[in-house]
Write a structure and sequence with these properties.
It contains 4 helices and no strands. The protein is mostly helical. The chain has one domain. Helix 2 packs antiparallel against helix 3 and helix 3 runs antiparallel to helix 4. The protein is rod-shaped.
Length: about 180
């Protein structure tokens, strides 16, 4: 009977210990599932954080692009204002030159208006315009000095001749540099 009692006790002990391992294994399996799910949730949170950062980056990039576009638009507007002011100045200076010399007004205003239209494309005065102005002023001065009896008439004649000569020389220089086509 002692053997039977010891055998039964050992079987019960053995069964109970095996049953505890199954419970521990089942509990550890459930714990592993929970840990896995927790890690998956953490990974999804990180993915969402990355997506939020991407969206914020794109917003910042778009706002920077808008700022750059606004600055470029302001630069273009400023350039247009400057071009308009220079064309107004050239047209007002050509009208003041036409008052000074009656005969050369058609030559000087024609060249300065073409200089005004080319000022938006190419900056600065053309050689024809410079030659006309220099020739007119130099010819008027020379005509006034040469004609001692009537210096006003000499200035007008010298201004017309000097302006025409200066325009011709300046126009030839513009053709050489490629500013004006033949």
């Amino acid at each position: 009977m002692k053997n039977l009692f010891l055998t039964g006790a050992s079987i019960i002990l053995l069964l109970s210990s095996c049953n505890k391992d199954e419970k521990v294994q089942a509990a550890s399996l459930e714990q592993q599932k929970l840990d896995y799910q927790a890690r998956q949730i953490d990974i999804e949170k990180q993915k969402l954080a990355i997506e939020k950062e991407k969206i914020n980056f794109e917003r910042q990039k778009d706002s920077l692009n808008k700022v750059e576009e606004e600055k470029e638009a302001e630069r273009k507007a400023e350039a247009n204002r400057v071009a308009r002011k220079s064309s107004r100045r050239s047209s007002s200076s050509s009208s003041s030159r036409s008052v000074a010399s009656n005969s050369s007004s058609s030559g000087s205003s024609g060249s300065s208006s073409s200089a005004g239209t080319t000022a938006t494309q190419k900056k600065g005065w053309s050689s024809a315009a410079k030659g006309t102005v220099i020739g007119t002023v130099g010819g008027a001065a020379a005509g006034a000095i040469i004609s001692k009896k009537n210096p006003g008439l000499g200035a007008v004649i010298g201004g017309v001749a000097g302006g025409a000569t200066g325009y011709t020389i300046g126009r030839a220089n513009d053709r050489k540099t490629g500013r004006v086509q033949k």
